[in-house]
Amino acid sequence: MTDSYRAGDAAACAAMFTLDAQLYSPYAAPAFGREAIEALHHEWTHGGVPDKKLQVLQSGGSNDTAWTLNAYSEDGGKVRGNSLAVWQRGRDRVWRIRICSLNDDQREVNHGPTKS
């Protein structure tokens, strides 16, 4: 997905999602379905985003459902945050994102609970 995002390939980004996926973001209205997700990615990736970074921080799951907690950044770190994605393995045995929620984080990144 990072390569597709960097190249500005909205269709390839959207192909990572199920046909009925949901995408929630602080940067746009929610997108429902792969077609809407592709349109949103077209806006986000128009012209390419060469410094886009995605890093899986945590993951888990069982059977045909999994999740990933990811960190993302672009624009020299001016845009950054976390995303939580729920993955579903389809009948074709390919894993795709079913639900994704992005969270903008312009503050220092906190990688764990704080002590009181």
The share of residues in helices is: 10-25%
User: Helical segment tally?
Assistant: 3
Radius of gyration: 14 Å
Describe the global form: globular
* Beta-strand fraction estimate: over 45%
Please report the distance between the alpha carbons of the first and last residues.
38 Å
Q: Please report the total strand number as a whole number.
A: 6
Largest sheet: 6 strands, mixed
Residue windows where pLDDT falls under 50 for at least 5 positions = none
Lay out the secondary structure.
Blueprint: H1 2-7, H2 10-14, E1 17-25, E2 28-32, H3 34-45, E3 53-62, E4 65-74, E5 79-89, E6 95-104
Parallel strand pairs: 1-6
Antiparallel strand pairs: 1-2, 3-4, 4-5, 5-6
Describe this structure in words.
With 116 residues, the chain is of the alpha+beta class. 20% of the residues lie in helices and 47% in strands. A 6-stranded mixed β-sheet has the order 2-1-6-5-4-3, covered by helices on one side. The longest helix is centred in the middle third of the chain and has 12 residues. It is globular. 17% of the residues are buried.
